[in-house]
Amino acid sequence: MNRLQGSSSSAKRKRELALVSDTLTDGERVLYNLILSKRDMGIWSGDMKRETNLPDHMVKKSLKLLQSKGMIKEVVNIQNKARKHYMAAQFEPSKEITGGDWYSEGSLDKELINVLKNVCVKYISRQKVVTRDGVLDWSRKSGVITAEVSNQQIEEILRALVLDDEIIEVKSTGYGDFENVPVGRVCYKSKSKGGVRGEPKDGAMSSIPCGVCPRINFCTPDGIVSPRTCVYYQKWLDF
């Protein structure tokens, strides 16, 4: 659909709603205008009663009528599925309401998440290094993943795999296995593989807690901040 068609369709929809709106009672119009004002966030029926001061039976009757005329729709709010949440028909629920890309009809799509995790781990294990865009491009071209997946979703899956300690996140040096990846670009490699050619080796300070300590500049042998009294340094020594 081009912009002209989209504009025409939108204008037609507004005209239809205006005609239907003319048949509403005062109470129904007040309720509809309130729901319309909430746009893609919608509103809980309990809040409607509080904000409009309409009797409970009138709110229920008006909601049924507005739904039957296609002016509003009931949507699932993942933050409280037990509450009836309504939205004007022309809006799509915001991610705050639906839970985002990982939710389908109000439920977390665990199957899709697990499939993506397994596919990404297998692909990365066969590569030297990969980027987020590389994983996404491969998933689309290979046809392994039939669902529409976004850059954001792939990035979240890769981040989860790093936290799960299944893959390693590194930055390109531009050398060796990184020669086709811009310097500094975040890459991923399989943890099961050894060091990657061109990847900088960890320095001695990288494994010592001092290397990431925010108080390192104040640390002295006999000071308040000192290796002698640091519990993290002692644990590292014991390990």
UniProtKB/TrEMBL annotation:
Cited PANTHER family: RNA POLYMERASE III DNA DIRECTED , 39KD SUBUNIT-RELATED
Coiled coil: none
Gene3D superfamilies xrefs: Winged helix-like DNA-binding domain superfamily/Winged helix DNA-binding domain
UniProt KW Ribosomal protein keyword: no
Pfam families linked to this entry: RNA_pol_Rpc34
UniProt keyword NAD present: no
UniProt KW keywords: DNA-directed RNA polymerase, Nucleus, Transcription
Stated name of the protein: DNA-directed RNA polymerase III subunit RPC6
Family: Belongs to the eukaryotic RPC34/RPC39 RNA polymerase subunit family.
Main function: DNA-dependent RNA polymerase catalyzes the transcription of DNA into RNA using the four ribonucleoside triphosphates as substrates. Specific peripheric component of RNA polymerase III which synthesizes small RNAs, such as 5S rRNA and tRNAs.
Location of this chain's protein in the cell: Nucleus
Chief place where the protein resides: nucleus
UniProt cross-references to SUPFAM superfamilies, sorted A to Z: Winged helix' DNA-binding domain (SSF46785)
Cross-referenced InterPro entries: RNA_pol_Rpc34, RNA_pol_Rpc34-like, WH-like_DNA-bd_sf, WH_DNA-bd_sf
